[in-house]
Design the sequence.
């Protein structure tokens, strides 16, 4: 019989296999459908100013994310980690997300590094809360675009309501963590796990008692998504693609939401497919949409190298 650790390892390998296969299939579809020889001429039109602006906006988005995280970690009677520390950890997490297997994801790294200052329960609860609230901000913007462009999305439109239900359900579970108490009765033989879960739920209960802070986190999550929209809009303009601000504001959150579906490695392939499928009905040529998507990926990957530097310096 397989041991528990071997089963978890097998499941992890299966998930990685599915994501790898999904990435290959989606990139293969793009290779067949998009004239790649026309992507490079589009890239050549990218102005240095647009690239620099995209890099700076990515850094600004990281600052906003770190600030949201700091808001969550601000509790009476407890030392709040400095913004610079959290920003450094956020960059490290971004680096791990982009360059290492998802089994060692950025959120896990953030929890591990932050736990040294806050304890594991607080670190885990804060990262989970920040992640779900970020997803909630994305879904709110995403639904605006969904109702405007539902017909153009075709069959893929069904994914957005499903994601909305998942995110809203996770938000409810986060706001009412009492459900976790039921799990404790099944953990009597694992006191360490039960103790960790109890501490985690206690922290979530404290967060729920601060609706003002959670509201601020939600608002900043929407601001974060707005920065991503501006970044993409400037990349379009920087490549000479004539596109409206309202179209970007409607479609970019949809693409970000679709990239959350766990069928590819870090959204690679799925994100590019989404750009092509959603933008081409509105006059953007497929090579242009693909060039923008790949440029967005390269900008984020470039900025995340700073996280690799921080990790090597600190360790």
Sequence:
């Amino acid at each position: 019989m397989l041991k528990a650790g071997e089963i978890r390892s097998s499941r992890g390998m299966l998930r990685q296999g599915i994501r790898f296969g999904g990435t290959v299939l989606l990139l293969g579809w793009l290779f067949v459908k998009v004239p790649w020889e026309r992507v490079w001429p589009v890239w050549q039109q990218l102005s240095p100013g647009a690239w620099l602006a995209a890099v700076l906006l990515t850094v600004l988005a990281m600052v906003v994310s770190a600030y949201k995280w700091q808001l969550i970690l601000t509790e009476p009677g407890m030392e709040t980690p400095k913004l610079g520390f959290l920003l450094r950890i956020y960059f490290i997490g971004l680096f791990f997300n982009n360059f290492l297997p998802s089994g060692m994801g950025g959120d896990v790294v953030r929890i591990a590094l932050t736990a040294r200052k806050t304890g594991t329960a607080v670190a885990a609860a804060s990262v989970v809360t920040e992640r779900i609230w970020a997803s909630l901000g994305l879904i709110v913007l995403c639904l605006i675009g969904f109702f405007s462009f539902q017909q153009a999305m075709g069959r893929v439109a069904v994914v957005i309501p499903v994601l909305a239900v998942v995110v809203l359900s996770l938000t409810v579970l986060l706001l009412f963590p009492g459900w976790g108490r039921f799990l404790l009765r099944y953990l009597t033989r694992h006191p360490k796990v039960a103790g960790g879960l109890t501490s985690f739920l206690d922290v979530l209960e404290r967060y729920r008692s601060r609706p003002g802070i959670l509201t601020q986190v939600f608002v900043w999550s929407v601001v974060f998504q707005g920065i991503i929209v501006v970044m993409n809009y400037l990349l379009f303009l920087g490549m000479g693609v004539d596109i409206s601000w309202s179209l970007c504001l409607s479609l970019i959150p949809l693409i970000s939401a679709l990239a959350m579906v766990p069928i590819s490695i870090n959204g690679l392939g799925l994100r590019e497919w989404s750009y092509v499928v959603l933008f081409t009905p509105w006059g953007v040529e497929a090579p242009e949409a693909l060039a923008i998507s790949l440029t967005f990926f390269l900008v984020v990957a470039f900025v995340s190298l700073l996280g690799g530097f921080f990790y090597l310096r600190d360790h």
